[in-house]
């Protein structure tokens, strides 16, 4: 759904209470669309106030969004999706960590909340599109098909967390900030010119439903203490932990092993086993991943043609690109081989494939393949 669409659209603008979504709603209204603002009440305790600059789901954010809508001159509502958010995002987040995987709740929220629950309700009420403050671009081709592309400014690109959107969702998505070749400071200046109170509001950080940023503490309260062993690659016990869910692949800090490795080099989390509640650590070279298998693929448009093809891949929201060869097997499994080994790849993460700036699609990492220790050591020498 492009901003220069030939007809006036009924647009539902998701307003988080931050500056990006406020400016996006203002641009959509300025473009001549019939815009209605909506704030999603996602917190189980909406009367709480934000701690510092974290979070985006408090009553304070709701008030900020309402003030922005008043300035823009658009109707505004608050929709309570807390129960759906808890089931599809928060409970999923907890279950994934409990299973030894590393989820991305922002992708899950876009897939299940903003462009599923919210979009479905919007369409049922007669809206044509959902507008958000994400930095990405939807391109409408001459044949009527749509493509999701990176934002014009790579420094602000958020296409990774939108890689879960399918063709139907893209047809009703609007990202007014995607073509912006400006800095965040200039977005704030635009908000100030428009008289938006949120112009100087700090950005939210980390995971919105963990306001203090303490992920391990959040999980511990819900999963309880579960003492287990920290071992090396040979199975030698090096220490203990209070819950394997508190670790992620590639983690270096907070291991509390107590004594250095024989070679004096740092050790990193290599594996998390929920079955025996064991965390395995080892040298950085042992993190080198050469290939992976991903499941639950979602395509931003048509699925790729049969057979292996070369793409670039992104493995983290703020990570760089790496060249890969990928092939879809039986329509359900994506097999990916890296041109050069990469580190810090964990089951549960999303891999997003790109063809240039176009987002091909995404899938959830299920398993990884690593170089043998001997091979990794040889490569490091």
Plain-language structure description:
The protein has 381 residues and is of the alpha/beta class. The chain has eight helices and 17 strands. It has helices at residues 19-30, 59-72, 82-98, 105-124, 167-170, 184-193, 215-223, 373-380; strands at residues 10-14, 34-41, 76-80, 129-131, 136-140, 146-150, 173-174, 228-231, 237-241, 268-273, 278-282, 289-299, 309-314, 321-329, 333-342, 350-355, 358-370. Strands 12-15-14-13-16-17 form a six-stranded antiparallel β-barrel. A hairpin with a 2-residue loop joins strand 16 (350-355) and strand 17. Helix 1 (19-30) crosses helix 6 (184-193) and helix 3 runs antiparallel to helix 4 (105-124). The longest helix is centred in the first third of the chain and has 20 residues, at 105-124. It is globular, with a radius of gyration of 22 Å.
Strand order of the largest sheet: 12-15-14-13-16-17
Beta-strand share of residues: 25-35%
Could you give the count of β-strands?
Answer: 17
Computed Rg:
22 Å
Task: Work out the helicity level.
Answer: 10-25%
Determine the number of helices (DSSP H or I, runs of at least 4 residues): 8
Low-confidence stretches: 47-55, 374-381
Through-space gap between termini: 52 Å
Q: How confident overall, as mean pLDDT?
A: 89
Structural class: alpha/beta
Helices and strands, in N-to-C order? EHEHEHHEEEHEHHEEEEEEEEEEH
Net shape = globular
Largest sheet: 6 strands, antiparallel, barrel
Oligomeric state of the chains in view: single chain
Keywords: ATP-binding, Cytoplasm, Disulfide bond, Nucleotide-binding, RNA-binding, Transferase, tRNA processing, tRNA-binding
Subcellular location: Cytoplasm
Catalytic activity: S-sulfanyl-L-cysteinyl-[protein] + uridine(34) in tRNA + AH2 + ATP = 2-thiouridine(34) in tRNA + L-cysteinyl-[protein] + A + AMP + diphosphate + H(+)
Active site: 109 (nucleophile), 208 (cysteine persulfide intermediate)
